Amino acid sequence: MASLNKVFLIGNLTRPPELRYTPSGTAVSDLRLAVNRGYTTQGGERREETCFLTVVVWGKQAESCGEYLDKGSPILVEGRLQTRDWETKDGQKRNVVEVVAERVQFMGRGKQPAGAPVAAPAEAAPFGGSDDAGHGDDEVPF
After folding, report:
1. Residue 138 domain-assigned (yes or no)
2. Percentage helix, strand, coil, to 5, in the chain?
3. Helix spans in the chain (H)
4. Are 75 and 107 in contact (CB under 8 A)?
5. Taking the CB of the first residue and of the last residue of the chain, which one, N or C, has fewer CB atoms within 10 A?
6. What CATH number did the domain enclosing 34 receive?
7. Per the domain annotation, does 11 fall within a domain?
8. What is the tally of structural domains in the chain?
């Protein structure tokens, strides 16, 4: 029987990445991702729910995430689901479902070095119009 374990997620980080290294020196970073889903109830009321997920990133990608991402950063993650089981010190069995990233795409501005100039957006508004959304680049969208 065929099987497939593939996820694509777009969301925002709820905290800065947690970068660490294994005893062999491999970088690993844990990202906490909030993914929003909007829907309409049967009564016509518009609602939104948020799913919070842990994304595990390995190697050079983990180091890049630690360097360029921060709380609120929008990212796209392509990866797979993985379950982990362990036992606590007091004997309780625990398990967790995580996303293991195969690719992390940065979708917005990351950290800027202190004193670095702020670059203009790469794309101008279509047909010479202005972006009148009124949102600053530093605002967290959730």
Report:
1. no
2. 10, 45, 45
3. 59-68
4. yes
5. N
6. 2.40.50.140
7. yes
8. 1
133 lies in some domain: no
In a domain, 55, yes or no: yes
Answer whether 47's CB lies under 8 Å from 38's CB.
yes
- Structural domain harbouring 80: 7-128
Mean pLDDT, the chain, whole residue set: 83
pLDDT category at 108 given cuts 50, 70, 90 is confident
3-class SS at 96? Answer: strand
Partnered with residue 54 across adjacent β-strands are 32
Segment 35-64 shows an average pLDDT of: 95
- Select from 112, 136, 35, 17 the least CA-distant residue to 71: 17
Q: What is the mean pLDDT of residues 84-91?
A: 93
pLDDT of residue 7 exceeding 60, the answer is yes
Residue 123 has pLDDT above 90, yes or no: no
CB 73 within 8 A of CB 137: no
Contact 77, 7 (CB under 8 A): yes
Number of helical (H) and strand (E) elements in the chain, helices listed first? 1, 6
DSSP β-bridge partners for residue 76: 10, 105
Query: How many other CB atoms are there within 10 angstroms of residue 74's CB atom?
Result: 19
